[in-house]
Amino acid sequence: MMDKQWDGGWSDMRSEAEDLCKYIKKRFWGLESNAFYGIHYEQTADILWDINQVLRHQLWLDRPDEGKSTVTVDASEAMRVGEEPLINIKKL
C-alpha cells in the first residue's frame, strides 16, 4: 500500500471505487468480482463497464504527477461500448 502522504489518498479512493463496482456487479448481475463475459455480452453490463472506465480514467487524472510517470490502461479516455452516453464526473 502506498504511503497516504505521498499519494494524497489516491489509492484509498481507487480501492473504494473498485469495491463499489464489485458490489454493483454482485448485487445487480449476481457475478463474482472475477467474472467477466466480455463487452457486448449484456447491455446493462456494457453501461457498467463504461462507468467503470470513466471512473478509472478520472482517478488517474487526479493522481499526483509523480504517479502518472507510467502510462497504464487508466490513462486512456474511456470509449463508449454501451448504448448510453458516458457519465460526467463533477467535483464538488
Structure report:
The protein has one domain. It is 48% helix and 0% strand. Helix 2 runs antiparallel to helix 3 (43-62). The protein has helices at residues 4-7, 10-29, 43-62. With 92 residues, it is an all-alpha fold. The protein is built from three helices and no strands. The model has no long low-confidence stretch (mean pLDDT 78).
Total domain count = 1
**Mass-distribution shape:** globular
Average pLDDT = 78
Instruction: Return the structural class.
Output: mainly alpha
Range of helix content? 40-55%
Q: Stretches where pLDDT falls below 50 for ≥5 residues? A: none
Give the biggest beta sheet. Answer: none
Report Rg. 14 Å
Record field, number of beta strands = 0
Q: How far apart, in Å, are the first and last alpha carbons?
A: 27 Å
H-E order: HHH
Strand content: under 5%
Question: With helices defined by DSSP (H or I, 4 residues minimum), what is the helix count?
Answer: 3
